Amino acid sequence: MSPSEVLPTLDHGLIGNGNLLALVSPTSAIEWLCLPRFDSPSVFARLLDRHKGGVFRFLVNGEEVRGELQYLTNTNVLINRFQHDGVSWELIDFAPRLPYGWTVDAPLRLVRILRPLHGLVRLRVDFDPRLDYARGETDLLAMPDGIEIRGPGGPLFLQSNLPISYVANRRDFVLDGPVFFDLSYGCRTRVSMSQVGHELELTEQGWQVWAKSCALPLFNPELVLRSALCLKLHACEDTGAIIAATTTSIPEALNTSRTWDYRYCWLRDAAFVVEALRRLSHLREGERFLRFLRDVAEAGPLQPLYALDGNPSAPEEILDHLEGFGGCGPVRIGNGATDQRQHDLMGELVLCLETLLRDPRLVHDEEDLRFFPLVQRLVEEAILRAPEPDTSIWEFRSLMRNHTFSRSMCWVAVHRGAAIARRFGELDLARRWERVADREHITILERGFNAKRGFFTQSLDGHFPDASILLLPTLGLVDPKDPRFLSTLEAYSEELTEGGLMLRYRNDDDFGRTTSAFTICSFWWAEALALAGRLEEAIQVFDRVCRHANPLGLFSEDIDPATGRLLGNFPQAYTHVGLIHSAITIGEHLEALEGKVRAWS
Description:
Blueprint (H helix, E strand, L loop, with lengths): L2 H4 L6 E4 L4 E4 L5 E5 L7 E3 L10 E5 L8 E4 L6 E7 L2 E8 L3 E3 L2 E3 L3 E10 L2 E8 L2 H4 L4 E5 L2 E5 L5 E5 L3 H5 L4 E3 L3 E7 L7 H20 L8 H13 L31 E2 H13 L4 H16 L5 E2 L10 E2 L13 E2 L11 H13 L13 H15 L18 H20 L3 H21 L1 E2 L4 E2 L15 H4 L7 H13 L1 E2 L2 E2 L14 E2 H13 L3 H12 L11 E2 L6 E2 L5 H28 L1
């Protein structure tokens, strides 16, 4: 059987609290959980190996039953309702997120609550943790008050109001009242049904309060809110780091070795997440990320990605003992991009710093003034590196070129850095940077546009299209109605699309030719069309992409244009950033159009 025939479907829900993330299948199976951090070794990794990975699920007659999985309104609490042979029951999954003064308490605990709805069902608990990516021995020690899980990366402890022997011996039981399961890391605080019920109420209310403070666009507000809630889960409460995705090694494309570990803080992706949440009126994530950024910057030269604790080392390793997602390996942990030269980084960070430092809702103290030396360092680095080749936003492993997007982001660093310098009274520095920015702007527009091909190209003096170019108007580098950009839009809609979705590029990279559509690129396309005044087309593209979301409104990194299957790591923060930005931009243009209609009438 080919991998595509046995490939799992990414129809999971994501639960978390800022310190814990878990993926739950409609069958009740927790198929992905890493502890004690997002980038730690796995406890359950069935997503990457159905037999050896480890799982936590509930069975009927020894078999899985699919339920109807959904989020409790405006929360990250999952509820799964099951029906089988005339009997119905529900499962609630959440990670406690409890009010604590002006902040929240986010313990390393995962809670599952089973409740009968109609009739009585016999269930069996399949609790099968496999610590350290199932590499080491995992021992379960049954005690009167629960099960202690011992092994590399522990300790963990499972408590329940069900007799613990039923769990340890996988005995069937009749669900005739509420049953809870509390899996915790590093503690054995006694819990009860009443306590977890109260924590469920507090967690639900807390998420709904957070959701109420989102400034949503009029265009597709429900999808935007779900994306915002998803992004919030990827922001680490402990350190302020923001990870790119929950998982590792879900392949970008089938039958390829394009499997990567995205459980790290890419500074680029994090900066984009911060701006998306800021546009929705959430600023705390940005404030915390700036502290993380300052700390890693003071520790040494900046690099593309970091572990959640700021560790600059994430050595890449292949786990041969795991078969991979649907048999599509290799499974990788760590990411070699830590050592790459990605010159767009300076622009994204300066942009992030500028928008937060000038936001009047934030009160800046003397501590915040310490960020200007970092701005100066980033701008000078951008000036130095702009003419040099790099690996680009797409992290080519060997294709070093003077990429147009990277060069444009260097311009952003210098251009926006000059504005920050003026704000801090550094007028001589601002004038010098403005002169450099003017020269860079001319260079990019002259050498980044190929008149013969009629579009902006992947690299200066190049020939290939590249979807990252669609961001140039949002950066302020080119007017969205400039004939050169309009012709780029036309060309890209022909050259880079497959099945109505946009690929990153068509040219060969280190692994051959990519076949999957990188989902954020289609949202960039929709936003670019809106900015260019082609609003109806923008809405069509947006709606077409959103039809590929899983039933809970979550996206992975890629979509297979031929089948519509979600591929790549899941959920992907970057994709949800693209959805938010494009929805806001389309919404703003719809409101402006509506205003003009009212004025004419």
